Amino acid sequence: MPSLRALPTARVAAADPEKVPVEASLVKHVPGVMSAKPENLSRPLLLERKWLYGIAVAGLALLTVAGAKVSIPLPGTPVPGTLQTLPVLLAGLMLGSRRGAFSQAAYLGLGLAGLPVFALPGAGFGYLLGPTGGYLLGFVAAPLIVGGLAPPVRTPGFPRRLTAVTAGILTIHAAGVIWLSLFYLPTPGDALRAGSLPFLGFDVAKGILACGLASAAGLVARNAPWTNRFSG
Asked: For residue range 118-153, what is the model confidence (pLDDT) as tens digits?
């Protein structure tokens, strides 16, 4: 037990706020007295934020599944048109590089596990060897680039976001075209005409939409008081 001689000092510390840090440092070393660690107080909030991030990662993966189901066959190409580019770019803009890429890796993992989540019929590892395999790998790489170039969600910066999604779109198209030229089409020119040109305009439109959605989310996050709890 602390000695009775320490009690007057505690009363003086309470009367003089400037002495409180000194006396608190002395009390911390008294046996039987436990100091409150500020970091312990933030554990529930950190846990809550982890759950929110997990839900966001799963949500973007499911949005990519939904985008794959909007599949439109196009003439002259083995690759269908889909809406998948939109959630892929949003993953990088909204979740950042690491979590964004993880959301698309989770989507890819669902398909490799045998679930029917891809644009064309089929699943499993054999599907990855098909004509869309390069694009699927690009889906995982694109959020890494988009998240690295784009500002945080709460930060204004539409031009930076537009630059980031442009780099992401080029990454997806480059991966798809290289894959087609290596395994499915005779020349890189054929791969470019079949694997990029038919989709480029639509993907640019989806990229602009993704920038608008991310900017709107940032505006809400900056002005809604309840979002301040999850900043950082």
From this structure: 999 999 999 999 999 999 999 999 999 999 999 998
- Predicted pLDDT of residue 104: 98
User: Can you spell out the DSSP letters for 24-66?
Assistant: HHHHHTSTT-PPPPHHHHTHHHHHHHHHHHHHHHHHHHHHHHH
* φ, ψ for residue 69, nearest 5 deg: -80, -15
72-98 burial by CB neighbour count: b if 16+ within 10 A, else e?
eeeeebebbbbbbbbbbbbbbbbbbbe
pLDDT digits (tens, 9 = 90+) for 169-205: 999 999 999 999 999 999 999 999 999 999 999 999 9
Distances 14 to 17, 25, 102, 179 between C-alpha atoms, Å = 6, 14, 51, 72
Residue 176: exposure state from Cβ atoms within 10 A (0-12, 13-18, ≥19) = buried
Place of tokens 């889909």: 82
Domains of the chain: 1-35 (no CATH), 42-230 (1.10.1760.20)
Q: How many CA atoms lie less than 13 Å away from 93 in the CB half-sphere?
A: 34
Name every residue whose Cβ is closer than 8 Å to that of residue 55 and which is 6 or more positions away in sequence. Answer: none
Task: Determine which helix (DSSP H) or strand (DSSP E) holds 106, and give its type and residue range.
Answer: helix 85-112
Cα 209 off chain centre by = 17
Q: Is the pTM of this model over 0.85?
A: no
